[in-house]
Amino acid sequence: MRPVDLAIALFVVTIWGLNFVFVKIGVAEIPPFLFMALRFGVVAVILVPFIKWPHGRGKALLAYSLMLGVIHFGLMFNAIHLIDASTVALLSQLNTPFAVILSAILFRDYPGWKRVLGISIAFAGCFVIAGEPRFDGALLPILMVVGGTFAWAVAAVQAKKMGSIGPFALNGWMALFSTPPLLAISLMTESGQWEALRMISIDAVISVLYQSVLVVIVGYGLWYGLINRYALSRVIPFTLLLPVIGVAGGVLALGEALTVDMLIGGGLIIVGVGIVALRQAARGEMPPIKPH
Fold it and tell me: What does the alpha-carbon distance between residue 206 and residue 183 come to, in Å, rounded to a whole number?
């Protein structure tokens, strides 16, 4: 890989990894569903004028948008609102094992023993983190993250069935379709929206712009440029840095605690997901990317 492309790969995974920190900052000030609506609204405003409508795929896009934009992000952002960003950064990597499991169920693409081993190791790490004393009797946020990663895997299957749609088109239409239901859910379940918007701080504004512009538009644009220039086996290993950067950002920027259980469980998750992702890349398959 050329030095400039190596720098681009590290830049993108850093943007995506630190996004867990920016989400935490945003939802600390703005109710989660309203915050998501703002994020997707900005993405839609920027992308929709420049993308084409994929004829014949409207219903599939709507279903994809509800699964990814509403259910997945709804679970994940509310979980980050309740627990530390570092824990979410680690547990969110379970999307890759779930994607392999769903592929085996729906497409009869049965994993070999190496991927089964990786899946087992990753879920073992999840149980280690969930067993931390601080989560005793309060496992709902953990279950929300796990449910969110499963929803992401379902959305990846939906995207696969839709066929070839460019990343910007997929993100643009998903953002447009997700924004109204997210606003509706916010109105029905949250309070203090107007006050939060009236008193919005520069930190919250930066958080929204960071996710919509840097994470989605800049991040995806640069990443898929790398995918087009290099074999997946050269690019995918960089995604294993996402949870490491996410945890480091949570600890250094937010002052979150780094416990022994997190180190052990997180290590198991990274190793397990690494085995699965590298096997997927060796097979020429694109593991689902999860920047948040």
Answer: 20
